[in-house]
Sequence to fold (231 residues):
Amino acid sequence: MLTLYSYPRLFGVADNNGYGLKVYAFFKLAGVPFEHEHVFDASTAPRGQLPYIVDDGETVGDSETIIAHVIAKHLLTIDALLSPEQRRTNHLITRMLDDLYWVMSYSRWKDERFYPAFRDAFIAQHPQINAAGFEKAKAYNSQRYHFQGIGRYTPDQAYARGIADLQVLAEIVPAAGFVHGAAPTSCDAGIYGFVANIYYFPIPTPLKAFVDAHGNLVAHCERIHELVTGA
Fold:
C-alpha cells in the first residue's frame, strides 16, 4: 500500500500546504489507492520537507518526483495524451506555482494582519499544537522568507508578485472543463493544490480577493474539490 505523508487538513481542505494537496488531488484524480497520514513535524521527512510517500517500502520526496514515480510505477495514463506543447505548459505552470507558494506562505506567517486568524484557526482544529509551538514555527518561517527573498519585500510588493501569478492562471484556466480539455490531468491537480489553499481559507488576503473575483478560478477549484472529496 502507498502512504502519503503530508501536513494537516484545514478549512475542509485535505492538506493546508499546496504541495501536499497537489499530490493528494493527483492520487484521487488518477485513481491511485493510498493511505493518508498527516504530519506536523517535517524534520524527519526526506530533505526535511513534506509531502513524501512510502510506496512498497520505497520513500520518495518532492511533489513532482512523487507524481513522476507513481505514473511510471503504476502505469498511469492521466497525462498520456498530452502533447509536447501541453507538457511544456505544465512545466511552466509548475514553476510559477513554486513562486506563488512563497507569497501564500508569507500571507499566513509573515503578514501580521492575517497571521492571528491563521494561527487561531489552526490551533482550534489541531489543539495538540499550542501557541508557543506556533510562534516557534513563525520564527523559523521568518528566517526562510529572509533567505529566499520574499521576507525582504513589503506586503504590497509580495502580493503584487502573487497576484501576477494568479493573473496568469486566470488567463489559462477555462470557464468549463479542465486546463487541457474535458478530463483533468496532473496540471489541474497542481493548480487546485494552491488555489484551494487560498479559496477555502476564510482569511481576507489580497490573494483570496483576487481568486474570489475570478469565476473561472473558483469554478475550476470547486470542480476538482468535488472530484477529490465527493463533496
Notes: DSSP finds nine helices and four strands in the chain. The longest strand covers residues 2-6. The two ends are 25 Å apart (CA to CA).
